[in-house]
Amino acid sequence: IYRSAGLISLFLISYILVSLENIQYVLINLSSYMTDFTSAILDTLCSLTSNTILICDDERRINFSQNSNQPILVFTTGQIAARLNKLPPEQFTFFTLENENPKIDNKHQFATIEDLISKLADEIVQKYRLEAKECHDRGELNQAKQYNEIGRHIYHELIRIHEKFTTGITQKILNNIEPSLILLVPKNEEMNFVKQTFGDYFSSYHL
């Protein structure tokens, strides 16, 4: 009887559904496509984003009905996305890996796992920048600073990983890029926020 109960308990545990509470990004059935480069990026993102990323190889184990109704970005294959097409589009946004004939004009389809995981990284960095701006607009300057610092830290870590896996290539590409002049027109009192938010991307600022 004890062994039977144990087997039943083990069976039930193996089919416990995973909650999406506090989850903002879901990766489904991508393990077999991952490379050393994308694994390094994903490990870094997971370590810096406060458990907002869920990685699962079986969509049947995810309880899609149990969540906080916040927007969730799903990164998976086209086949899995097709099986989940009944999820409310106002809450779930899909970005898919398409091995065959991805639509060039579709910003949600990607031909390589590198492009798909890079999209995940871009979305996370942009999320922190958006939250920083919203906090700044509400006058929550300390929180805005914290979000900016997290986004900047993630960005720098991603650059470091990219340089590690593309030794000698990154600098060559940068050397071939012509300087660009970008005109921003902030109010005088907003200049510090602009410098803080975009400080890593521009070399000088003038009113």
Describe the structure.
The chain is an alpha/beta fold and 207 residues long. Helices cover 47% and strands 13% of the residues. It has 7 helices and 7 strands. The chain has helices at residues 2-14, 36-48, 78-83, 113-137, 141-165, 169-175, 191-198; strands spanning 18-19, 25-28, 53-56, 62-63, 72-77, 92-97, 109-110. Strands 3-2-5-6-7 form a 5-stranded parallel beta sheet. Strand 5 (72-77), helix 3 (78-83) and strand 6 (92-97) form a beta-alpha-beta unit. Helix 2 runs parallel beside helix 4 (113-137) and helix 2 (36-48) packs antiparallel against helix 5. The longest helix is centred in the middle third of the chain and has 25 residues, at 113-137. The chain is globular and about 50 Å long. Residues 1-14 have low confidence and may be disordered.
> What is the 3D shape?
globular
Question: What structural class do you assign from the helix and strand content?
Answer: alpha/beta
The radius of gyration over CA amounts to 21 Å
**What is the mean predicted local confidence, pLDDT?**
79
Number of extended strands: 7
Helix-strand topology string: HEEHEEEHEEHHHH
The main sheet comes to: 5 strands, parallel
User: Fraction of residues in helices?
Assistant: 40-55%
- The N- and C-terminal alpha carbons lie at a distance of 79 Å
Number of helices: 7
> What is the topology, as strand order, of the major beta sheet?
3-2-5-6-7
Weakly predicted, low-confidence segments? 1-14
Strand content: 5-15%
